[in-house]
Design goal:
By secondary structure, this protein is mostly beta strands. The strands form two sheets. Strands 1-2-3-6 form a four-stranded antiparallel β-sheet. A hairpin with a 6-residue loop joins strand 2 (22-29) and strand 3 (36-43). Helix content is 11%, strand content 37%. The protein is globular, with a radius of gyration of 14 Å. The longest helix is centred in the last third of the chain and has 6 residues, at 79-84.
């Protein structure tokens, strides 16, 4: 992808804790319509982060996606679930700060 080009699916963000264990979010979307298909949150066993936060964490409107517990597979959030919290397109997601919290 050249600088300035729109992102292509999937968009992946990885957040490492202090011992390099990570929580990851992968957001897939239609490259033409930009509509979200799903978001998958995965977490290394033992990672100190348990939640992906979309927006500034202190804001009441911040959206939180739970990471799986140790030993579980990834948590998948459907387009319908994301739409219920106001996320319908990849631009909705990218307009927000994305971070992780314990």
């Amino acid at each position: 992808m050249a600088k300035g080009d729109p992102p292509t699916s999937p968009v992946v963000e990885v957040f490492d804790d202090y011992v390099q264990l990570a929580v990851t979010i992968a957001v897939t979307f239609d490259n033409t319509t930009r509509a979200l298909a799903q978001a998958v949150v995965s977490r290394d066993d033992g990672c100190q982060y348990h939640t992906i936060v979309l927006d500034v964490p202190s804001r009441p409107q911040a959206k939180r996606l739970a990471a799986p517990v140790d030993g579980a597979g990834p948590n998948t959030y459907t387009a319908a679930q994301l739409s219920k919290v106001g996320l319908s397109t990849i631009e909705d997601v990218l307009a927000l700060q994305i971070t992780a919290e314990p």
